[in-house]
Amino acid sequence: MSLLAIDVGNTNTVIGLFDGDRLERSWRVKTDARSTADEMALVYRGLLDGSPPISGIVLCSTVPAVLREMRHMLDHYHEDVPTVIVEPGTKTGVPILTDNPKEVGTDRIVNTMAAHHVYGGPAIVVDFGTSTNLDVVSRKGEFLGGALAPGIEISIEALASRAAQLRKVELVRPRSVIGKNTVEALQSGALYGFAGQVDGLVRRIVDEIGEVRAVIATGGLAPIVVPESETITHHDPDLTLVGLRLVFEKNVD
Q: Which residue among 7, 21, 80, 107 is the active-site one?
């Protein structure tokens, strides 16, 4: 089966093409909430040019406007292809042990499913995206809740926009933690500051639930922070795509 998995985030959309349970190709494109269904269809047609015919599609989205247009695109251009859209009521097998399960982002549930399937539990998923999400997975694969923090890029953008003498910088490791100029000082604060934030939250979570089997980093900005973290044990850039594949298999016979 050739399965198209689509994870629509606030900043980027990650697309994966599976052959059975093997991820053959993946793409990362900018999420544009203004794109129409027809424009999206052109993008996907270009990406998939030369690939085998799609026999299944699975989608999750944290952007309502994009989800609406994606539904139109799928109905119009892929009406004969079995499709699963992850939303409240979709069968995932993940118990959501929060005060209001319907407010939990579908990407967080998909990540929980994938983390437990691949690494077991208890586990913590750290998703570095527009926001930095820490999601806690129980030994049984339940979603216990987590912590949400501003993402690295939006934090730097906010700082640059509010401080007249500061600016956006490239997120790379500076020569030293002690920055010798403004650029290096900003890089140090962002890189080591966010690594320290994640490590601090992970340690507090472990204090509450006990030792975990894995702390898995995913998301577009994970490669920047993972080398500096003391608590992250695995980097899995395809975690959400794997979770989407598992959801599709659970919902389509």
A: 107
